[in-house]
Structure formats: structure tokens, C-alpha cells
Amino acid sequence: MFERPLRRPGWRRVATWLVARAQNLNNVVIADSPSPVKIAAMVGSIPFTRKFAVWLDASLVPAPPQSVRAFAFGLSQRELSFVVELIGTEEFQKEGTRWIWSELWTPDVAKLIIPSKISCDQLSECIRQVRTAIRHYLAHGTYASRLKKAEGIAIEALGHSYDLLWARDEPERQALLG
Question: Which phi and psi angles does 112 have, rounded to 5°?
């Protein structure tokens, strides 16, 4: 006669789910019930590729303007860590790097700090990790189609390292994404 109202998940159910998810990602076992401190520690240990995807999802909402012709992921160094930011440009050329400096759009989301345990405090390792995360996002990301509307996607690091990861008219670069 009376229907039981739907139960909204409480913080314990959400916490239990988060810990279980983090345990699956990290093959970690926690014996007792989750606490907010343990949850923060577990979420903090989610793989970098996943953190990057969450950051990039937030950066691409709302969608960049249609006048953006290319995207550059700029790496810079801040104190003892590296940071990455997304830049939309109004120019693009396959050869050369001048187009990276024609900034037209940046998202409202802050830069993503790359933990030193990911980059090993080495620029080359940082670039490798970000390149892997971008390629994974282009293949599986929620808003990958928004990035792929551009003519090209590149990584620029500290003003002197440049890597074109994706170009709309180059199938061999697109094949790297699966």
C-alpha cells in the first residue's frame, strides 16, 4: 500500500564506493571502514591519466569557441613541480611553433599540477606522461571530439620543446590513437 521512498546515497555509501573504486585502481586493501582522511588519500592515488581526463573534461565545458584553430598543452615549471595548461590558438601551421603564441582562448579551469612522483622532476618524463594522457584522452575522452575539431594539437614545454601530437589531415598521427 505504501511505497518506500527511494533512498538517496549517504556519505558512507559514496565513501565506500570511492574506496572500492580506488582499491580496484591501485590493488590496495583497506580492512576497516572508510574515513574522510582515507578517502582523500585514495582519491589522491588515482592514476595521472584519469586525473588528467577529469581536468580536461572540466576545461572543455563550456566548449571552446569555433574560432579556435588549434590547441596547445603548455608545460611550465612552478616552484618544485610542473604544471600543464590548455590553450586555444587562432593560428596553426604544421611546421614551426609561432602559432602556439597566438593565444585566443584559455579555459576557466586552473592549470593542472603534475605531481613530482609522476614527472620524477624531469622535463622529459613530464612530457612523456602528458603525451600519454593526451593520446588516451583523444582516443577515449568525453569531449575528445571538441579537441579533434581543431586542425592540430601539440605540446609545448618551457618555450623550447615542441611536439605535434595530432593533425586533422595526417592519418599516420591519427593512427597512433587507435
Answer: -95, 125
- Distance (Å, rounded) from C-alpha 77 to C-alpha 161? 13
Q: Which of 46-60, 149-163, 164-178 has the lowest mean pLDDT?
A: 164-178
Question: Which residues contact residue 61 at a Cβ distance below 8 angstroms, ignoring those fewer than 6 apart?
Answer: 143
Instruction: State the residue for C-alpha cell 620524477.
Output: 120
- For cell 590558438, the residue is 89
Q: How confident is the model at residue 71 (pLDDT cuts 50, 70, 90)?
A: very high
Distance CA 103, CA 108 (A): 14
Higher pLDDT: 45 or 87? It is 87
Dist CA 104 CA 102 (whole Å): 6
- Confidence at residue 7, expressed as pLDDT on a 0 to 100 scale: 47
Q: How confident is the model at residue 4 (pLDDT cuts 50, 70, 90)?
A: very low
| Residue indicated by cell numbers 593533425 | 167
Please confirm whether the linkage preceding 64 is cis (ω < 30° from 0). Answer: no
Q: What gap in Å lies between CA 115 and CA 15, rounded to an integer?
A: 24
Extract the C-alpha cell encoding 107. Answer: 579555459
Cite the DSSP H helix spans in 29-155.
Answer: 36-44, 48-59, 116-119, 123-140, 144-148
pTM recorded for the entire structure: 0.72
Q: What is the DSSP letter of 97?
A: S
